[in-house]
Inverse folding.
């Protein structure tokens, strides 16, 4: 028997006990019969997205270098999440109650998925800063950070910050004594669950876990939410100024025309067509601006979905810090689902808002049909 803590519980109904720790027929069935297919499908979709962004149409641009790494970590995180049934489907699978299931959860599943999702939250920040640098001089510093530097520094930062959370949970043996009043007997049942480790209860653990929670969840959420709002505001201001310039173009001199050209050049700098420098003519510029707006919508959509996932994580961690009940177990499952759905939707977001991505996928599909 592994040397982990043992909790002894006296109950009158084993089924009711399973419900209290979050194991219901609905949730167990959902994680067994639905989530594996969603996770594997999302992992495959991210792998396809990674392959597309590796094509020559998407080379030599910081945005797509970041998105390549974003889809790679999403692929890994979502793939790991497709095995959530291993410890969430107690009523269907006997091995879900074993030590191996929660060893996998504590030391493999949680560290990998948490790190991948944390990395993607920081990558979201890099992308938003890069977008804001187009419209505001305050964020011009973001353009000086190359994609390799941004990715390497993000990986190191996220792994180091997340280290305390690698030791927070461990497999915990629960000895359940089911009392049968009618037969005046007691039946003992042993199951495993995730429990807080000795490190989590220590003074050192508490002094590290709370700052990590603030940096990883609260600060990233606040930062990305603020940057999203600023991005929307800057885009509206940018478009409003363009309308004003266009309406006064007949009455203005060369100064306004120079400002207009400056705004156009800033807009084109974020477009999703890497061959834009070879294009000429007003029609090409209009296409570039349209591509810019779609890229901006893509980035804002990714940020919005990340916000929803971060809120679900925070709700679970904050409530679970004070209560251990059915609501805690439900929030645990909800935040797992939102994470999988968020990162599985990357392919759809790219397809809807990126013309090059959509064109590449359509060309491959037409080739397969031929």
């Amino acid at each position: 028997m592994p040397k982990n803590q043992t909790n002894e519980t006296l109950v009158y109904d084993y089924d009711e006990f399973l419900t209290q720790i979050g194991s219901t027929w609905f949730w167990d069935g959902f994680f067994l019969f639905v989530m594996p297919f969603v996770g594997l499908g999302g992992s495959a979709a991210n792998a396809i997205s990674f392959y597309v962004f590796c094509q020559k149409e998407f080379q030599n641009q910081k945005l797509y270098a970041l998105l390549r790494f974003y889809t790679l970590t999403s692929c890994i995180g979502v793939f790991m999440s497709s095995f959530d049934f291993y410890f969430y489907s107690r009523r269907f699978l006997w091995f879900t109650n074993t030590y191996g299931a929660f060893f996998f959860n504590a030391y493999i599943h949680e560290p990998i998925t948490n790190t991948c999702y944390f990395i993607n939250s920081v990558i979201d920040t890099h992308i938003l800063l890069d977008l804001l640098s187009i419209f505001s001089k305050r964020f011009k510093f973001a353009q000086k950070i190359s994609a390799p530097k941004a990715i390497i520094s993000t990986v190191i930062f996220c792994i180091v910050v997340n280290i305390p959370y690698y030791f927070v949970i461990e497999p915990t043996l629960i000895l359940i004594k089911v009392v049968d009043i009618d037969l005046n007997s007691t039946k003992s049942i042993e199951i495993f669950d995730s429990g807080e480790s000795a490190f989590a209860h220590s003074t050192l653990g508490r002094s590290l876990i709370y700052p990590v929670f603030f940096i990883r969840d609260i600060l990233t959420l606040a930062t990305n939410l603020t940057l999203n709002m600023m991005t929307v505001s800057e885009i509206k201001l940018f478009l409003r100024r363009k309308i004003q310039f266009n309406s006064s173009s007949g009455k203005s001199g060369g100064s306004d025309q120079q400002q207009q050209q400056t705004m156009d050049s800033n807009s084109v700098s974020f477009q999703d067509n890497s061959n834009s420098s070879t294009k000429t003519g007003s029609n090409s510029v209009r296409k570039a601006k349209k591509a810019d707006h779609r890229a901006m919508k893509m980035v804002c959509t990714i940020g919005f979905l990340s916000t929803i996932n971060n809120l679900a994580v925070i709700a679970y961690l904050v409530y679970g810090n004070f209560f251990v009940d059915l609501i805690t177990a439900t929030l645990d499952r909800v935040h797992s689902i939102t994470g999988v759905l968020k990162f599985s939707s990357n392919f759809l977001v790219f397809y809807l808002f990126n013309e090059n991505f959509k064109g590449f996928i359509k060309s491959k599909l037409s080739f397969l049909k031929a």
